[in-house]
Specification:
The chain contains no helices and 37 strands. The chain has 408 residues and is mainly β.
Length: 408
């Protein structure tokens, strides 16, 4: 007897005897939403050495819409260790769409039974914590379509036990991903999950321009590192080792941009240093140059300026870091010029108002003393008089009258 082989062609029939091939040639076929309202048949062809013959099955009943049908069961990946991130695999669902999926993580006993929903755990991932120790975990996946819904649960995990901390990838200062300059302070932000307490140790490393062949930088074991001239042409990264009583987890950051020589860059603008009462004629004010990065060394030059609505103009000869405020009714600022071998950059402070001649300036802030009672005007409550200092004109004859407000 000669062997016989079979082939299959599934067809979709909108009406009796009006059928078309649907590109399905396996022995089985999974109905989809496109088949709703039609009938299904299959053409079977048998072949041997003597020839072939074809027959057609009877029509199916009309395909009706149904709730989603599970084709491949959901599952969980990830280790059952405190601090680990479990990843839910949704499985495969079919049926007329659209189909939406929702998740609910559950905590079960050590046998995987008596499961209860974990409040708020409704994402596709779940981070294990101390609260899960001694339990097993499973995931309930619900598929919903306009025609109904169906659910299925995963197999439970093994019993959750304590383990080494699970560290997050350390994040470097935002700007470091694209550029890095000598003088820049690189800061690593780290974090870990796991049974505490969790300690962190740092080791900064210097790599080649491609971020490879990295080696530890001697003594660079803090959460921040200041880039030096010798780092030019290289990249930087940090390894953070998270440790607890169950072990350690070293995690490496991404590398920085290539360290390059550069003209000074102001990371923080210049500022004026004076008391919080305000600037007055005759006061001594100091310029803070701000925070700068770039190739070292960086030198600073100062130019004091008086400003009006029309702009700012230099004060002749005022080129030191400290300055005595002259008699003026304008605003004051300082212009700082930072210079290194690669170039020069200029930055301005904010302008501050100067209390001019004849104005009163508080030299001590007012305060309230006494006992205050809700709903009462207490005779013990009073405002201490503010100490005032008069800004005299150069003639010394300016007079300022202060009117005391009338009492109600």
């Amino acid at each position: 007897m000669q062997p016989i082989s079979f082939s299959y062609q599934w067809q979709l029939c909108a009406e009796i005897e009006v059928c078309s091939n649907i590109g399905a040639t396996a022995r089985t076929y999974v109905l989809t939403g496109e088949d709703v309202g039609a009938r299904i048949q299959v053409v079977v062809t048998a072949k041997d050495v003597d020839g072939e013959a074809t027959t057609v099955t009877t029509f199916s009943t009309v395909v009706e819409a149904a709730a989603p049908v599970l084709v491949l069961a959901p599952s969980i990946s990830g280790a059952a260790l405190d601090g680990e991130l479990l990843q839910g695999q949704q499985g495969l669902w079919t049926g007329p769409g659209p189909i939406s999926l929702s998740y609910q993580w559950q905590s079960c006993n050590q046998s995987g039974a008596a499961c209860v929903a974990i409040p708020g755990a409704t994402e596709a991932t779940y981070r294990l914590s101390d609260a899960n120790l001694g339990a097993t975990i499973r995931l309930d996946v619900t598929a919903t379509s306009p025609h109904g819904q169906a659910s299925d649960v995963t197999e439970p995990t093994s019993i959750v036990v304590a383990g080494p901390p699970v560290g997050e990838t350390p994040a470097l200062s935002d700007s470091l991903s694209t550029y890095a300059y000598p003088g820049e302070v690189v800061t690593a932000t780290a974090g870990a999950h796991g049974q505490g307490p969790v300690s962190e140790t740092y080791q900064w490393e210097l790599c080649n321009g491609s971020g490879e062949n990295c080696a530890a930088i001697s003594g660079a074991t803090g959460s921040s590192y200041t880039i030096v001239e010798g780092d030019s042409g290289r990249t930087i990264r940090v390894t953070v080792t998270y440790s607890n009583s169950h072990g350690a987890d070293p995690v490496v950051s991404n590398v920085s941009g290539v360290v390059s020589d550069h003209a000074p860059i102001d990371r923080q603008p210049p500022a004026l240093s004076f008391d919080d009462i305000g600037l007055g004629v005759g006061d001594a004010v100091t310029a803070e140059p701000g925070a700068w990065v770039g190739s070292q060394p960086i030198s600073y030059a100062y130019q004091w300026q008086l400003c009006t609505n029309q702009g700012c103009s230099d004060v002749a000869g005022a080129n030191e870091a400290t300055f005595t405020v002259p008699a003026t009714d304008t605003e004051l600022r300082v212009q700082v010029t930072a210079t290194n071998a690669q170039g020069t950059t200029v930055a301005d402070s904010q302008a501050s108002r100067v209390y001019g001649s004849g104005e009163l300036k508080a030299v001590q802030k007012p305060m309230i003393t006494g006992e205050l009672k809700d709903g009462e005007r207490s005779p013990l409550a009073r405002a201490n008089g503010t100490a005032l200092r008069r800004r005299m004109t150069t003639s010394g004859k300016n007079v300022v009258n202060v009117n005391r407000p009338a009492r109600s």
